[in-house]
Amino acid sequence: MSGVRHFVEKGTDPDLPDRSGYTALHYASRRGDYELCEYLLSKGASSNVQTRGGATPLHRAAYCGHLPVVTLLLTHSAAPTIADQDGMTPLHKVSLVSSVFE
Protein backbone atom coordinates (compact mmCIF):
# COMPACT_ATOMS: atom_id res chain seq x y z
CA MET A 1 0.00 0.00 0.00
CA SER A 2 2.87 2.39 0.68
CA GLY A 3 3.70 2.63 -3.04
CA VAL A 4 0.16 3.62 -3.96
CA ARG A 5 -0.01 6.09 -1.09
CA HIS A 6 3.29 7.62 -2.18
CA PHE A 7 2.05 8.30 -5.71
CA VAL A 8 -1.35 9.60 -4.58
CA GLU A 9 0.26 11.88 -1.98
CA LYS A 10 2.57 13.22 -4.72
CA GLY A 11 -0.49 14.21 -6.75
CA THR A 12 -1.14 11.22 -8.98
CA ASP A 13 -4.81 10.93 -9.89
CA PRO A 14 -6.21 7.94 -7.94
CA ASP A 15 -8.31 7.12 -11.03
CA LEU A 16 -5.29 6.90 -13.35
CA PRO A 17 -5.83 3.67 -15.33
CA ASP A 18 -3.33 1.19 -16.67
CA ARG A 19 -3.43 -0.02 -20.30
CA SER A 20 -6.46 -2.21 -19.61
CA GLY A 21 -8.33 0.56 -17.86
CA TYR A 22 -7.82 -0.82 -14.36
CA THR A 23 -7.21 1.67 -11.57
CA ALA A 24 -5.64 1.13 -8.17
CA LEU A 25 -9.17 0.79 -6.76
CA HIS A 26 -9.93 -2.05 -9.20
CA TYR A 27 -6.83 -3.93 -8.05
CA ALA A 28 -7.42 -3.24 -4.35
CA SER A 29 -11.06 -4.33 -4.69
CA ARG A 30 -10.07 -7.54 -6.44
CA ARG A 31 -7.59 -8.33 -3.65
CA GLY A 32 -10.07 -7.45 -0.92
CA ASP A 33 -7.73 -4.81 0.49
CA TYR A 34 -10.29 -2.90 2.54
CA GLU A 35 -7.77 -0.44 3.99
CA LEU A 36 -6.39 0.55 0.59
CA CYS A 37 -9.88 0.84 -0.90
CA GLU A 38 -10.92 3.10 1.96
CA TYR A 39 -7.80 5.23 1.47
CA LEU A 40 -8.30 5.58 -2.29
CA LEU A 41 -11.97 6.48 -1.87
CA SER A 42 -11.01 9.11 0.72
CA LYS A 43 -8.63 10.59 -1.87
CA GLY A 44 -11.36 10.91 -4.48
CA ALA A 45 -11.17 7.62 -6.37
CA SER A 46 -14.39 6.92 -8.25
CA SER A 47 -16.33 3.86 -7.14
CA ASN A 48 -17.88 3.69 -10.62
CA VAL A 49 -14.80 3.97 -12.86
CA GLN A 50 -14.94 1.33 -15.60
CA THR A 51 -12.27 -0.71 -17.36
CA ARG A 52 -12.25 -1.11 -21.12
CA GLY A 53 -14.45 -4.16 -20.54
CA GLY A 54 -16.86 -2.16 -18.42
CA ALA A 55 -15.93 -3.64 -15.03
CA THR A 56 -16.15 -1.40 -11.98
CA PRO A 57 -14.37 -1.95 -8.67
CA LEU A 58 -17.70 -3.33 -7.42
CA HIS A 59 -17.65 -5.99 -10.16
CA ARG A 60 -14.14 -7.03 -9.05
CA ALA A 61 -14.94 -7.18 -5.33
CA ALA A 62 -18.23 -9.00 -5.90
CA TYR A 63 -16.73 -11.62 -8.20
CA CYS A 64 -13.91 -12.29 -5.74
CA GLY A 65 -16.32 -12.56 -2.81
CA HIS A 66 -14.94 -9.65 -0.78
CA LEU A 67 -18.16 -8.61 0.98
CA PRO A 68 -16.59 -5.99 3.28
CA VAL A 69 -15.19 -4.22 0.21
CA VAL A 70 -18.53 -4.59 -1.60
CA THR A 71 -20.23 -2.89 1.35
CA LEU A 72 -17.60 -0.14 1.44
CA LEU A 73 -18.00 0.57 -2.26
CA LEU A 74 -21.79 0.67 -1.98
CA THR A 75 -21.54 3.19 0.86
CA HIS A 76 -19.40 5.30 -1.48
CA SER A 77 -22.09 5.40 -4.19
CA ALA A 78 -20.98 2.43 -6.27
CA ALA A 79 -23.78 1.72 -8.74
CA PRO A 80 -24.83 -1.94 -8.56
CA THR A 81 -26.72 -1.67 -11.85
CA ILE A 82 -23.75 -0.91 -14.13
CA ALA A 83 -23.27 -3.78 -16.57
CA ASP A 84 -19.93 -4.79 -18.04
CA GLN A 85 -19.40 -5.61 -21.73
CA ASP A 86 -20.87 -9.08 -21.14
CA GLY A 87 -24.05 -7.54 -19.74
CA MET A 88 -23.23 -8.63 -16.20
CA THR A 89 -23.86 -6.43 -13.17
CA PRO A 90 -22.04 -6.87 -9.85
CA LEU A 91 -25.08 -8.84 -8.62
CA HIS A 92 -24.56 -11.31 -11.45
CA LYS A 93 -20.90 -11.56 -10.47
CA VAL A 94 -21.59 -12.24 -6.79
CA SER A 95 -24.10 -14.94 -7.70
CA LEU A 96 -21.27 -16.83 -9.43
CA VAL A 97 -19.28 -17.08 -6.21
CA SER A 98 -20.57 -19.93 -4.07
CA SER A 99 -18.31 -19.09 -1.10
CA VAL A 100 -20.27 -15.90 -0.51
CA PHE A 101 -23.34 -17.93 0.34
CA GLU A 102 -21.64 -20.40 2.70
UniProtKB/TrEMBL annotation:
The keyword Magnesium does not apply. This is Ankyrin repeat domain-containing protein 39-like protein. Residues 1-18 have a biased composition (Basic and acidic residues). Residues 1-20 are annotated as: Disordered. It comes from Callorhinchus milii. SUPFAM superfamilies: Ankyrin repeat (SSF48403). Keywords: ANK repeat, Repeat. PANTHER family: ANKYRIN REPEAT DOMAIN-CONTAINING PROTEIN 39, ANKYRIN REPEAT DOMAIN-CONTAINING PROTEIN 39-RELATED. InterPro entries: Ankyrin_rpt, Ankyrin_rpt-contain_sf. ANK repeats lie at residues 20-52, 53-85.
